[in-house]
Amino acid sequence: MQVKSEKRIQLPEELRFIPKWAYGLAAVAFVVVEIPFVTLLAHQKDALPVPTLALLGLLAAAVVSCYLLLIGYINRDAGRRGMGSTAVDDDRGFDPQRFRHYPVFRFAATAARPVPAM
Fold first, then answer.
1. First-to-final CA distance of the chain
2. Contact 87, 95 (CB under 8 A)
3. pLDDT in tens, 50-84
4. HSE of 44 in the Cβ direction (CA atoms, 13 Å)?
5. How far apart are CA 16 and CA 39, in angstroms?
6. Left (φ > 0), alpha (ψ -120 to 50) or beta: where does 93 sit?
7. CA of 43: how far to CAs of 1, 40, 58, in Å?
8. What sign has the CA pseudo-torsion 107, 110, 113, 115?
9. To 5 degrees, how large is the angle CA 33–CA 34–CA 38?
10. Is this structure's pTM higher than 0.70?
């Protein structure tokens, strides 16, 4: 059986695929997440040292920013692969059945059933 040779994708090509709005949103979120760590938490009575708070703020800001960049990449990549990028279909509207395989929604569906009387 012959294997289809696929083009190897390099990281810079994928980074160019992230939309500009995602970069802007990630930059704003980075600053907004960092500010409470340096300003608000440093004034608490039992606060950690300021350098530690700054590092924790950088870590939290980096995680939130990367998450937003990932959302932007998935949004653009879904269109490239021919998939819908939202939970709303043009012909059916919002379809809650798309989420039925998530355990939380499974539990909610079983918890909503009436319990038989004994």
1. 61
2. yes
3. 888 889 999 999 999 999 998 888 888 777 777 66
4. 12
5. 34
6. left
7. 67, 6, 18
8. negative
9. 130
10. no
Q: State how far the Cα of 44 lies from the Cα of 48, in Å rounded to an integer.
A: 9
Domain ranges of the chain: 12-86
- The pair of three-digit structure tokens given for residue 39, joined into one six-digit string: 């300003």
Structure tokens at 98: 């798309």
* DSSP helix/strand/coil, 101: coil
Q: How many CB atoms lie within 10 A of CB 19?
A: 13
From start to end of the chain, where are the E strands? 88-89, 93-94
Structure tokens at 102: 């998530």
Residue type, 4: K
3-state SS, one letter per residue, for 53-77: HHHHHHHHHHHHHHHHHHHHHHHHH
